[in-house]
Each structure stands twice: as C-alpha cells, then as structure tokens.
C-alpha cells in the first residue's frame, strides 16, 4: 500500500512539473514579442504608456516624480467606457500628452471618497496633483456627472490634461 502511495505521489509531481514547465515555456515566448509592461495594466487605454497598478502606487509616484496623476474609472462591460477607451487610445495627441502623467485606470471603485466627489459612475476621469490634491475644478461638460467624458469630448479631455499640467507649473 505504501508503494502505491509513493508511485502516485511521484506521478503527481511529474504531472505538475510538466504542466508548470509548459506554462513557463509559453510565457517566455509571449514576453519576447510584447512590450516590457504587461498589457493588463493599460487595459487598452494606451499600450505604449506606463500605467501604475494601484492607487497607492500612483499617489507615491506622482508625489515623487512631481507629475500629476490621471485616474480613469471605467468598466469592461460598459459601452460608454469602451467607446471612451477607443477614442482615448486612438487620439495621438492625448496619448502623447498622457506620457507627462502618472497614469492609472481602475475597473473597481477605490475606498477613497475623494475619487468620487459627485458619485461613483463610469467612465470618469480625475486629476490629482503631486501635492495629492484632487483637482475637483477640472471637469467635463456634464453638470450631473462632472468628471464624465464621452468620445466626442476627447478634445475637452485633451485641454483638461493641458490644464492639469499648466496648473501644476503655476501652483506648485
């Protein structure tokens, strides 16, 4: 009986290590062709941009790099989020300007109430300056959803991004 257990254990170990080796082989093939950042962080908002993983990391990087933080709240199954993401990712000037920001896109709500000054809706985009102040004064065009943008608002978003950078220089 003991021998059967040992044989079973060895077969199990062999099976597990084979499965792991197969997965490891896959990963190396993918990572050689993809950019150095995992695609998951951009979630399609701009694969060549550097995205932070968490709100805490984003705040830290904003403070220490003296760059404003741009937070995009969105949901994968929201058609408005998807449409804005497409417009954002395809807009060359927005993508270029986004390089001057610490970037974070969230598909979940944070516990920080400052990130939902007028409610939790998606998509919404907020700017936070390196002093960790939420720029509640940089808004979109909707009075009932101050931080919402639609694909047709992409030029407004672009000018708000410029505003966030300009205010940074004048106020800090």
TrEMBL record:
<keyword id="KW-0964">Secreted</keyword>
<dbReference type="InterPro" id="IPR036249">
    <property type="entry name" value="Thioredoxin-like_sf"/>
</dbReference>
<keyword id="KW-0256">Endoplasmic reticulum</keyword>
<dbReference type="GO" id="GO:0002162">
    <property type="term" value="F:dystroglycan binding"/>
</dbReference>
<dbReference type="Pfam" id="PF13899">
    <property type="entry name" value="Thioredoxin_7"/>
</dbReference>
<keyword id="KW-0732">Signal</keyword>
<feature type="signal peptide">
    <location>
        <begin position="1"/>
        <end position="21"/>
    </location>
</feature>
<comment type="similarity">
    <text>Belongs to the AGR family.</text>
</comment>
<protein>
    <submittedName>
        <fullName>Anterior gradient protein 2</fullName>
    </submittedName>
</protein>
<dbReference type="InterPro" id="IPR051099">
    <property type="entry name" value="AGR/TXD"/>
</dbReference>
<dbReference type="GO" id="GO:0005576">
    <property type="term" value="C:extracellular region"/>
</dbReference>
<dbReference type="GO" id="GO:0005783">
    <property type="term" value="C:endoplasmic reticulum"/>
</dbReference>
């Amino acid at each position: 009986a003991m021998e059967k257990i040992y044989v079973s254990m060895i077969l199990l170990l062999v099976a597990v290590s084979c499965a792991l080796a197969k997965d490891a082989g896959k990963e190396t093939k993918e990572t050689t062709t993809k950019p150095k950042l995992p695609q998951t962080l951009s979630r399609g908002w701009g694969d060549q941009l550097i995205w932070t993983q968490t709100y805490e990391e984003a705040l830290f990087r904003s403070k220490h790099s003296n760059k404003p933080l741009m937070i995009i709240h969105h949901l994968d199954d929201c058609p408005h989020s998807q449409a804005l993401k497409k417009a954002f990712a395809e807009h060359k000037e927005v993508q270029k300007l986004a390089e001057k920001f610490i970037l974070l896109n969230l598909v979940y709500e944070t516990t920080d109430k400052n990130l939902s000054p007028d409610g939790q809706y998606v998509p919404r985009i907020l700017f936070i300056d390196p002093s960790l102040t939420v720029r509640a004064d940089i808004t979109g065009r909707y009075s009932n959803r101050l931080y919402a943008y639609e694909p047709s608002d992409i030029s407004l978003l672009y000018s708000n991004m410029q505003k966030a950078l300009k205010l940074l220089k004048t106020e800090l």
